[in-house]
Design goal:
This protein has about 375 residues and is an alpha/beta fold. Helices cover about 25% and strands about 25% of the residues. The protein has 2 domains: about 120 residues; about 220 residues, Glycoside hydrolase/deacetylase (TIM Barrel, Alpha-Beta Barrel), CATH 3.20.20.370. Helix 4 packs parallel to helix 5 and helix 7 runs parallel beside helix 8. The structure holds zinc ion. The site of zinc ion (ZN) has 6 residues, from loops.
């Protein structure tokens, strides 16, 4: 018996890896598991965010929510609490827009250049906005600096210390792509963006003239989307007022609609900015535990694995995608995965590229079993 236990122990591989490692000791007889960069192994990620497209209860502001509803778009809107004047606007945010699946990012109580404020003043501005949002049941996770002014480290620190997980800025000369393949970490409080301004609007404003991160229409957006896919990166698009025909109109409706088609035509993950932040934060913290169970003769019988990010599940609840390739012993067989306490659950493994399989599970420590049939 002692000898049998020793044999079983010798063949049981139990290991713990992070998102930047691959769980493999001997690829020939272990299930190889790695983290997909993006949800469901998408080639890249794109977020559509909207500043100042709602809240004043005027007719044209219905344009974007209608497009969001018609296209079932996962997007983020700004919430500038100083602009929320009465209960009707609170209710619009809480009831109508949230029910369309719109997430909200905090945009400050006052819409001002936070770099002109002290650390304490900026933090107070951020907290007042956060508390206003919480009062109607919205828990903001991401901040966007008004005007993109988040250059000062004290402003970035104020956003972090106010409890936000990330903050979006605007840098006219830096690359708008987050986490291209050669880069391993995200600068959380300097998230870049690509600004969407029609040419006539851009030409009206001197400070918008010289830059590399503004596009005027879909034709100019498409090369950025292709580059984002080539880099395997995340691109955050920022739109402003869309709809009126006067000088306030910053982008044409027809181009917004064409942008949606162009984004969807690529194999990218169209994701709310807030959700992309949560996904990447989870992946950064996640640990994969994997145990290979073998019989006395060394034959692999099952693999038990779990993901745990150690973060609170009420915020960090998005599933992460794992990629798997079969051990040699299981080649030609059908692999099946199920929660350890529900062997009869539907098939959870989905084909990925190059014969790999995808498993998408939350990083909550729950165990899953992989077997070959
Ligand atoms: Zn703004």
């Amino acid at each position: 018996m002692k000898l049998l236990c020793a044999v079983i122990f010798a063949y049981c591989l139990s290991s713990c890896v992070t998102a930047t490692q691959v769980a493999s000791v001997s690829p020939s007889d272990t299930l190889t598991v790695s983290f997909a960069k993006w949800h469901k192994n998408s080639s890249a990620a794109v977020s559509m965010t909207f500043d100042h497209t709602w809240g004043r209860m005027v007719e044209w502001e219905r344009t974007v929510p209608k497009i969001v509803a018609d296209s079932v778009l996962p997007v983020d809107f700004d919430y500038t609490s100083g602009y929320i004047y009465d209960n009707n606007q609170h209710l619009l945010a809480r009831d109508t827009l949230q029910k369309l699946g719109i997430a909200f990012f905090a945009h400050g109580h006052r819409h001002i250049n936070n770099d002109t404020l002290s650390y304490e003043q900026a933090k107070a501005n951020f907290l007042e906005c956060r508390d206003s949002m919480r009062s109607i049941g919205i828990n903001p996770l991401v901040y966007a600096y008004p005007g993109g002014y988040g250059y000062k480290t004290s402003t970035q620190r104020a956003a972090e210390d106010a409890g936000f997980l990330a903050a979006r800025m605007f840098d006219p000369l830096e690359s708008p792509h987050v986490l291209p393949n050669a880069v391993q970490t995200v600068d959380w409080y300097r998230l870049p963006t690509l600004m969407m301004f029609r040419k006539e609007f851009q030409d009206l404003h001197d400070f918008l003239r010289v830059n590399r991160t503004i596009v005027n229409n879909t034709a100019q957006l498409v090369p950025h989307l292709r580059e984002n896919t080539r880099l395997g990166a995340w691109l955050i698009l920022t739109y402003h007022m869309i709809g009126p025909t006067d000088n306030e109109n910053t982008y044409e409706v027809r181009d917004l609609l064409a942008d949606i088609g162009a984004i969807r035509s690529q194999r990218t993950w169209l994701v709310r900015m807030q959700d992309a932040v949560v996904y990447l934060r989870e992946k950064e913290a996640a640990r994969l535990s994997i145990e290979h169970r073998r019989n006395a003769s060394g034959r692999l019988e099952k693999v038990i694995l779990s993901l745990n990010d150690g973060l609170p599940d009420d915020v960090y609840s998005l599933p992460l995608t794992l990629l798997m390739t079969s051990p040699v012993q299981w080649k030609g067989k059908t692999l099946r995965a199920y929660p350890i306490n529900n062997p009869n659950s539907p098939q959870m493994l989905v084909p990925a590229e190059d014969g790999a399989l995808m498993l998408t599970i939350p990083p909550d420590g729950k165990q899953y079993v992989v077997i070959a049939e």
